[in-house]
Amino acid sequence: MSLRPDNLARHELIGLHLTVGQSSNPCQAGLTGQVIDETRNTFLLETKAKVVRLAKKNTSLVFTLPGGQKVRISGSVLISQPENRISKRMQKTRWKL
Predict the structure, then answer these.
(1) Is residue 83 packed enough to be buried (19+ CB in 10 Å), middle (13-18) or exposed (0-12)?
(2) What are the residue ranges spanned by the domains of the chain?
């Protein structure tokens, strides 16, 4: 399955470039880096200066796909164990280009 905006939530996210759009933690808004690990509720983001654990809940995330396309998605949609998210039904209206 190729990585597209409509199947991003059901795809492997480790290795993708991520920018934090909005966050309930103001210190994390605007962070940018590469996803190096994922748990049910968090991402581990490697930035130039440090490694940051980023909560998915109450966060707006902008992923850059390998082709350069940017996709904004609510972190709440991604709350699930990564291996279980593949079979989860997703609403198409929850992501934006």
Answers:
(1) exposed
(2) 5-91
CATH architecture of the domain 5-91 equals: Roll (2.30)
DSSP for 14-67, written as a single string: TT-EEEEEEESSTTTTT-EEEEEEE-SSEEEEE-SS-EEEEESTTEEEEEE-TT
The tokens for 17 are: 């470039």
pLDDT at 42: 93
pLDDT tens, position by position, 17-48? 999 998 888 888 899 999 999 999 999 999 99
Taking a C-beta distance cutoff of 8 angstroms, is the pair 5, 29 a contact?
no
Whether the pLDDT of residue 95 is over 70: the answer is no
